[in-house]
Design brief:
It contains 7 helices and 8 strands. By secondary structure, the protein is an alpha+beta fold.
């Protein structure tokens, strides 16, 4: 009896060591972890202080975001706020100014990150909208993914391998 219990303890200890090792590896990769009742989502999208600084400076020159900053400074009610880092946010999402190079950098990082290589437009939008906001963001994400040659090639290959097949009597017939 003691032998079976000691084997069980050893197995549990081994699992705990593996779990601690995985947690350490996650920390080294700077992974963000979101636990839901049905799943655990891991992601890595780093915002460097340089990017935040560029966004903060761009917000000062963007006419729409400048209006929002002025509304906050004058004490008017707004769904926008300024974070402790001085960056304008909408519901805790960073407001990205209308600066094509900044938006392109964010879109490229979101589309080619190590954990989410070439996601579709829906997944990419869902991931980016957790952290960023700008007017017509969903449309820009969709256009960015549509312009990606790797994604278009994968889409063509997938559509060629999956064709609808139906039966006419006892004979399978390809549709389309």
């Amino acid at each position: 009896m003691a032998d079976a219990l000691s084997r069980k303890s050893l197995h549990i200890f081994t699992l705990m060591v593996r779990e601690m090792d995985l947690q350490e590896q996650f920390r080294d990769l700077s992974l963000a972890c979101e636990v839901t009742p049905n799943s655990v989502r891991l992601g890595t999208l780093r915002i460097t202080s340089e990017l935040l600084g560029d966004i903060r400076e761009g917000q000062k020159t963007d006419p729409f975001l400048r209006t929002q900053l002025e509304a906050i400074e004058s004490g008017r009610e707004s769904s926008f706020n300024v974070g402790s880092d001085g960056v304008l946010r909408l519901q805790d999402r960073i407001c990205v100014p209308n600066a094509p190079e900044l938006r392109k950098m964010i879109l490229e990082e979101g589309h080619r990150s190590n954990l989410s290589i070439h996601p579709g437009s829906t997944k990419m939008y869902q991931d980016l909208k957790m952290m960023f906001w700008w007017p017509n963001m969903k449309r820009e994400v969709s256009e960015f993914v549509y312009a990606c040659l790797v994604c278009q090639k994968a889409k063509i290959e997938t559509s060629e391998t999956f064709r609808e097949v139906t039966t006419l009597g006892d004979t399978p017939v390809e549709v389309g």
